[in-house]
Amino acid sequence: MKRRWTTGLLIAVVASVPQAACDEDFGITYVADEPDAPRDLTGSYYNRGVDLSWRLGPDWSGEPFRVYGKRVSDADYFFIAEVTSCIDSVCVYRDINVKAGVSYEYYVAAVDPDTGVETPSEYAVEVRVPEPVPPPVPEGLQTVALDGAAYLHWDDSPALEDDFLAYRIYASGEDGYYLVGETDSPGFMDLLATNGHTTSYFVTSLDDQGHESDGSEAVDCTPRLDYAGEIMYAHGDVPSASGFRFQESEDAQAVMAGDSEDRHFRLESDRQGLWMVPGPQARIHPESRWTTSLKCGPGADPDCESWEIAPRSGYSTARAALDPGYTYMFRVPGDDGETRFGALRATIIGVDQEGDELIVFDWAYQTQPGNPHLSRTAATSGW
């Protein structure tokens, strides 16, 4: 920003006064008081516009301000706008009628609304409007579906630019995409996401001049219920706590009687080990996978291994052997009868102080019918 002194911009104006005020007997001429000039005028470029700011003078009496501007190459200023309201003794105006590659000069004047007398700022400011070069587009956007939240992360290469400022995260809504948050790190947790509802996200990068990149590729995410540290018993030892049903609410009891018709499976034991026996209309996939965690979300160990997308077919009514450290997939009827997918991983197989066999396990459940994603979604739209 450059300053140019505005000496000579003020034009003296003689107020119109009643005839009696100019009585020849007294020889008096009344001249209107000048309004207090604006102070500390500043101008700066930001995102294809010029922002002007100035402070009120100590003797300001509510007069409006007139903003004048011109291209540096022009001879005369022209009137741009009138500003009538200020906040906390500071006034602002944004000029968006500017062109890239051009330098502009501005000054501001306080104006008496009754007489038209203007008092300009002490100097004019010069602002050059650069060519708007958008920053790099973020790449590699991925999402992790959590319980009542969605975690997004992406490649941080835009932050290597000298003028990098932040990332903006947009989420889909009923009326299109809206800004859900801003961060200077390559990760963001959307705590407004809801279980069973698919939201599409994309990310942009922002530089320190307000230029915003195009959006990244959009990625869908559907949060779902999960629970850690659930305990259930073998049917032969504690029948009342040997059944399990994937629940659509954390307030509902997942462990139930093994003979309940609502169960999705029952835990049974014999000399060969522990078995999961499907309940009415429930199915277990015969494949199981060794994993280190049910899900590999934010803050997970770099070596974390999980199985988070259920197969769509191949499920069976046959019982499945249960081993600790393995993840098992289920296809079950939901409370509304629609097909849903769930996952279970036993962390501990043991006995309690009474010698009753038990398991401690984590589970996840996708409350959106037909959606097989139980945590991470791929970096593509849809599922």
Describe the structure in your own words:
This protein has strands at residues 2-5, 39-45, 50-55, 65-71, 78-83, 90-95, 102-111, 118-120, 123-129, 142-146, 149-153, 164-173, 176-183, 187-190, 199-207, 219-221, 225-233, 243-244, 255-256, 265-270, 273-278, 283-290, 320-321, 326-333, 339-351, 357-365, 376-377. It is mainly beta and 383 residues long. It has 3 domains: 2-129, Immunoglobulin-like (Sandwich), CATH 2.60.40; 142-221, Immunoglobulins (Immunoglobulin-like), CATH 2.60.40.10; 225-375, no CATH class. Strands 1, 4, 5, 7, 8 and 9 form a 6-stranded antiparallel β-sheet that branches. It has a 5-stranded antiparallel β-sheet with strand order 17-26-25-24-22, with no helix packed on it. Strands 19-18-20-21-23 form a 5-stranded antiparallel β-sheet, with no helix packed on it. Strand 10 (142-146) and strand 11 (149-153) form a beta hairpin. The protein is elongated. The two termini are 51 Å apart.
Primary descriptors:
mainly beta; Immunoglobulin-like; six-stranded antiparallel sheet; disordered C terminus; five-stranded antiparallel sheet; 383 residues; elongated; single chain
